[in-house]
C-alpha cells in the first residue's frame, strides 16, 4: 500500500528529522511536505531530503487563498500525483506523532486490525510541558512523556482527532482534521472507526472533528500531540504564528488548554529502536547534519532576539508562573457543556 503523510512546516528544521524518522518507522511510505517563508533552513533541508528520494518538497510561498497558508497547501496537494496514487492519506503537523498500539506498531497493522474501515480517527493525546524551560536538541518523543489522562471531559480540544482515510474518491478535498467535500453517492458506503476500534455514526463521515468526551479513545492508536514543547520553543511558536488562524497570536489560553501532565505515557517508545535507526541514517548525511545544526543554532539565537521584546518577554514570564493545567471533573465539564449547548441553540434561533 501507498500510505501518504501530508505535512506543512515553517521554521521547524530542528524537529523535522525526528518526525520523518518516526513516521518512516511507523510505516508511512510517501511524504508530501509544503514549506513557506522559512528562516531556519527548513526549506533547504526539505530540498536535500527530496534529492535523496525520501520526501517530495513543494514550496508554498503564496499568494494564499482566504483559507490561509495551510489550506492553500492542501489545494496544491489535491492536484499532486502523490495523492492520486495514495491508497491511504493523512494530514499531519510536525508536532503530531502517530502512535500505533497494535501489531508491530505500524499504520499497516492498524489498517489490518480494522479491515472494514474506510477512515480511522486518531484522537490527540495532549502532552504537556512537564516544567521544561530551556530548549535542547533532543528527540521530542523522549523528552516529553507527561500527558493528559486517557479519559478527559474538557476541553473539547483534548478530543480532537486527525483522520487516516482510504483515498478511494469518497472525499474531494483535504482538511486539517478530516477529509472534506464528500461525494453524495459514495459517502453512504464509508465506514468510520475510532482509535478503540469502535464503529462511528454517520456524523463522523460528514462533519465531526472531535471524539466523544468521557471515554478512552486510544486502545489501538492515538496521535501524540506535543503542542507546547519547552517554554523557549513555545515563544518561538508564538512568533511563527498559527498555520490556520494566522491572525491569532498564541498566548496563555492555548497553553492552559494543552498543558496536562498528570499521566506518564511512554508507549511511543515501542518504535524508538526503528526510529533511532532511521534518524542515525538521516544524520549520517553530512548535508542534513549541517542543516539540522544550523536550525538548532537559529532557534537559540531567535529566542534571544525575541526576549528583547516586551510582548515575548511577558509571555515567557507568564509561562514560568503558570502551573500545570488541572483536568476538570465530569460535573464541572457538564456545567460548561450545558451552557455551550444553550449558546449554540441561541445562535441557531
UniProtKB/TrEMBL annotation:
SUPFAM superfamilies: Nucleotide-diphospho-sugar transferases (SSF53448). It is found in: Membrane. Coiled coil: none annotated. It is a single-pass membrane protein. Keywords: Membrane, Transmembrane, Transmembrane helix. It holds the Pfam family Glyco_tranf_2_4. PANTHER family: GLYCOSYLTRANSFERASE FAMILY 92 PROTEIN (PTHR21461). This is Glycosyltransferase family 2 protein. It comes from Thalassovita aquimarina.
Amino acid at each position: 500500500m501507498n500510505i501518504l503523510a501530508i505535512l506543512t512546516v515553517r521554521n521547524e528544521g530542528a524537529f523535522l528529522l525526528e518526525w520523518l524518522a518516526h513516521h518512516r518507522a511507523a510505516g508511512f511510505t510517501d511524504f508530501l511536505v509544503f514549506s513557506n517563508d522559512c528562516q531556519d533552513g527548513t526549506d533547504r533541508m526539505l530540498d536535500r531530503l527530496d534529492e535523496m528520494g525520501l520526501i517530495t518538497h513543494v514550496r508554498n510561498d503564496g499568494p494564499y487563498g482566504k483559507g490561509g497558508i495551510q489550506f492553500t497547501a492542501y489545494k496544491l496537494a489535491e492536484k499532486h500525483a502523490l495523492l492520486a496514487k495514495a491508497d491511504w492519506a493523512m494530514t499531519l503537523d510536525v508536532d503530531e506523532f502517530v502512535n500505533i498500539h497494535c501489531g508491530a506498531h505500524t499504520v499497516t497493522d492498524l489498517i489490518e486490525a480494522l479491515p472494514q474501515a474506510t477512515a480511522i480517527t486518531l484522537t490527540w493525546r495532549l502532552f504537556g510541558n512537564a516544567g521544561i524551560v530551556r530548549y535542547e536538541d533532543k528527540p521530542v518523543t523522549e523528552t516529553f512523556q507527561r500527558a493528559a489522562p486517557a479519559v478527559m471531559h474538557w476541553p473539547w480540544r483534548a478530543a480532537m482527532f486527525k483522520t487516516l482515510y482510504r483515498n478511494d474518491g469518497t472525499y474531494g478535498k483535504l482538511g486539517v482534521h478530516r477529509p472534506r467535500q464528500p461525494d453524495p453517492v459514495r459517502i453512504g458506503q464509508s465506514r468510520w472507526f475510532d482509535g478503540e476500534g469502535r464503529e462511528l455514526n454517520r456524523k463522523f463521515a460528514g462533519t465531526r472533528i472531535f471524539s466523544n468526551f468521557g471515554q478512552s479513545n486510544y486502545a489501538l492508536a492515538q496521535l501524540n500531540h506535543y503542542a507546547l514543547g519547552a517554554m523557549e520553543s513555545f515563544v518561538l511558536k508564538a512568533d511563527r504564528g498559527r498555520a490556520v488562524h494566522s491572525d491569532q497570536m498564541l498566548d496563555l489560553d492555548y497553553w492552559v488548554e494543552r498543558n496536562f501532565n498528570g499521566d506518564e505515557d511512554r508507549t511511543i517508545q515501542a518504535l524508538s529502536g526503528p526510529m533511532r535507526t532511521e534518524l542515525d541514517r538521516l544524520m549520517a548525511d553530512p548535508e542534513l547534519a549541517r542543516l539540522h545544526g544550523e536550525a538548532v543554532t537559529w532557534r537559540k539565537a531567535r529566542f534571544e532576539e525575541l526576549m528583547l521584546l516586551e510582548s515575548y518577554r511577558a509571555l515567557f514570564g507568564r509561562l514560568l508562573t503558570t502551573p500545570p493545567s488541572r483536568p476538570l471533573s465530569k460535573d464541572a465539564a457538564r456545567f460548561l457543556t450545558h451552557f455551550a449547548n444553550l449558546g449554540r441553540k441561541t445562535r441557531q434561533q
